[in-house]
Structure formats: structure tokens, C-alpha cells
Specification:
Largest sheet: none
Number of helices: 2
Structural class: mainly alpha
Order of helices and strands: HH
Length: 106
């Protein structure tokens, strides 16, 4: 009869040992996952900053383009505007279109 309680004690001790190992393994995995999440959050923050920088740069490019277009329109409206020849930008686009069509036919 005494062998049964020893067997139960041995089994319980093994079970506790396995349970502790499982808890340690779980804690280790949780730390790894937290480190991964922290790394990904940092990467996301860096990407957001980069996107904001790119958006500002793009906004600056659009402003430059708008200013140049405004300047050309003012120049064409202020002097030397020939109604038959069209706006200088429009002429350039038509010339580009004609040259592109000529290349396509070649």
C-alpha cells in the first residue's frame, strides 16, 4: 500500500516540474512576442515619419509647379499673345504630341 502514495507523489512532482517548465516557456514566448511587437511599432513610427516627409516634399513640388504654371499664364496673358498660335504651354504640348505620333508611325 505504501508504494501507491510514492507513485502518486512522484507523478505529482513530475507534473509540477512540467507545469513550471511550461510557465517559463510561456513567459519566454511572451517576452519574444513583446519584443517583436515593439520592433514593429518602431518600424511603423519610422514609416509614418517617412510618409509625412514625402508628403511635405510632394506638397512643395506641387507648389513649385503651380507657381511656374501661374507665371507662364501671366506671361502669356501680359504680352506677345497671339490668339492664333495658342498658349505657349499648349503649343509645346501639341508639338510633343505631334512628335510622339510621328515616332509611333516610324
Amino acid at each position: 500500500m505504501l508504494t501507491a502514495p510514492c507513485h502518486i507523489t512522484s507523478h505529482t512532482s513530475t507534473h509540477l516540474h512540467t507545469s513550471e517548465e511550461s510557465e517559463l516557456e510561456l513567459e519566454r514566448k511572451m517576452r519574444e512576442k513583446e519584443a517583436i511587437i515593439s520592433s514593429k511599432n518602431e518600424e511603423i513610427a519610422n514609416m509614418k515619419n517617412k510618409m509625412e516627409d514625402m508628403a511635405q516634399e510632394f506638397g512643395g513640388m506641387l507648389k513649385e509647379t503651380l507657381d511656374k504654371m501661374r507665371e507662364r499664364i501671366e506671361l502669356s496673358n501680359n504680352g506677345g499673345f497671339d490668339a492664333d498660335s495658342g498658349v505657349p504651354i499648349q503649343r509645346q504640348m501639341e508639338e510633343f504630341n505631334w512628335s510622339a505620333q510621328a515616332e509611333a508611325k516610324s
